[in-house]
Amino acid sequence: MIDIDKDIHSLSDFKRNTSSFLDQMRGNGHPVVLTINGKAELVVQDAASYQKLLDRLDELESLERIKQGLVDVKAGRVTPLKTFETEFRAKRALPNRPR
C-alpha cells in the first residue's frame, strides 16, 4: 500500500537522500513513487517486497488457470487420459509405456 504523504517524492529528493529512502522501503515494505516535473514517472521498491509481489502474481495466475480448467471440465472440454498420453508420446517421439 502506498502512503501518499510518505511514499511520493521527487526524483531529485530521492537522489539526495537515497540511503534514507532505502531504509524506509526496507522498514515498511512500501514502494516509493518518484516524480519528475510533478508527474509520477517511476516506482522504486526493495527486492524482497518485489519478490513477494511476483510470487503473489504467480499464485493469482495459477488460481485463474485452475478456475478455467474447472470451467472446461463442466463444459465437457476434456480429453481422456489415455488419448492425451497417446498424443503426448507421439508428438514427442516417446515410446509407448508398457502396460
* CA-based shape: elongated
Structural class: alpha+beta
Overall helicity: 55-70%
Sheet having the most strands: 3 strands, mixed
Mean pLDDT: 93
Number of strands: 3
Order of helices and strands: HEHHEEHH
Strand composition percent: 5-15%
List keywords for this structure.
about 100 residues, alpha+beta, 2 domains, 3-stranded mixed β-sheet
Explain how this protein is built.
It contains 5 helices and 3 strands. It has helices at residues 4-7, 11-16, 18-28, 47-74, 81-91; strands spanning 8-10, 32-36, 39-44. It has a 3-stranded mixed sheet. Helices cover 61% and strands 14% of the residues. The chain has 99 residues and is of the alpha+beta class. It folds into 2 domains: 4-45; 49-91, no CATH class. The model has no long low-confidence stretch (mean pLDDT 93). The longest helix is centred in the middle third of the chain and has 28 residues, at 47-74. Strand 2 (32-36) and strand 3 (39-44) form a beta hairpin.
